[in-house]
Design brief:
The chain has 262 residues and is an all-alpha fold. Helix content is 74%, strand content 2%. The radius of gyration is 23 Å and the shape is globular.
């Protein structure tokens, strides 16, 4: 069996750079999510009408030429690519269990470094990879196709009536896609926030526990406190009657048929 490659200083430096890129891009993604998810939450108060108005205000942040490229898609791409690159780096150059040279006896100094025990992937990692295809599908459906010149629906015409149509005509699929994307995003965000806190701010309020009861309590609070209002808002939207002309409903169907046919 081939010996593990040495975990050199260059590899450590590259890994630290990728980690920093991943952490620095996180606040931009969090800001986008706060704005984006506030629209369905407010459907609990004013239905799809209020949600649509909030969404239009949010687009001033994340759908301008600068905002979409540098405040949303750019940070998301950097976050995803840096995470994948770091995983590949750890696969090619697995961390080694090293000991100071002064503590080794003469016979041990010439021995190759022992490979560190491989641990099970963390919840942060397990939620990251499914998010890539889920977000890609969500982006294609709600932004990519409507932004295309050949699209039957223009981006400016896309509001929560489209979400309502999706929920009413493809209930099982749409609830699965929206629910999975929401749950995985929140879990990944909470786990990532703990990692960032423990790395940069442990002296403020101490380190946060990353396992045990504290971890699951934190996740449950996030899912109930954030996912709950979002899901209930979407449920309120799904119970409303369509408020668009039949021609627009046909165009909604054409957009979704493009996505699900592909």
């Amino acid at each position: 069996m081939a010996e593990p490659r040495p975990y050199s200083t260059k590899v450590k430096t590259a890994r630290n750079i990728l980690t920093t890129i991943s952490h620095c891009s996180s606040p931009f993604i969090s800001t986008f999510l706060l704005i984006h998810l506030s629209a369905p939450v407010l459907a609990n108060l004013g239905g799809s009408s209020l949600s649509g108005q909030v969404m239009i205000l949010g687009r001033e942040y994340y759908q301008t030429p600068f905002g979409e490229a540098f405040l949303v898609l750019g940070p998301m791409a950097l976050h995803s690519l840096s995470g994948v690159a770091k995983r590949l780096l750890d696969t090619i150059f697995p961390p080694t269990a090293s000991m100071p040279a002064s503590s080794l006896v003469e016979g041990q100094k010439n021995e190759p470094p022992k490979k560190a025990k491989r641990r099970w992937p963390s919840l942060l990692t397990l939620t990251a990879y499914p998010l890539i295809p889920l977000f890609t599908l969500h982006f294609i459906t709600h932004r990519g196709i409507p932004a295309s010149p050949a699209s039957p629906l223009h981006s400016s015409e896309l509001d929560f009536e489209f979400v309502k149509f999706h929920l009413q005509h493809y209930p099982k699929l749409s609830w699965f896609l929206y629910g999975s994307l929401l749950a995985l995003t929140l879990i990944h965000g909470v786990e990532g926030a703990v990692v960032v806190w423990n790395r940069y701010y442990p002296s403020v309020l101490g380190r946060l526990k990353q396992s045990g009861k504290a971890k699951w309590t934190r996740l449950a609070a996030m899912l109930v406190g954030v996912a709950g209002p979002v899901v209930s808002g979407m449920w309120m939207i799904s119970r409303e009657l369509p408020m668009v002309f039949p021609d627009m409903l046909k165009r909604f169907e054409r957009v979704l048929s493009i996505v699900y046919r592909v």
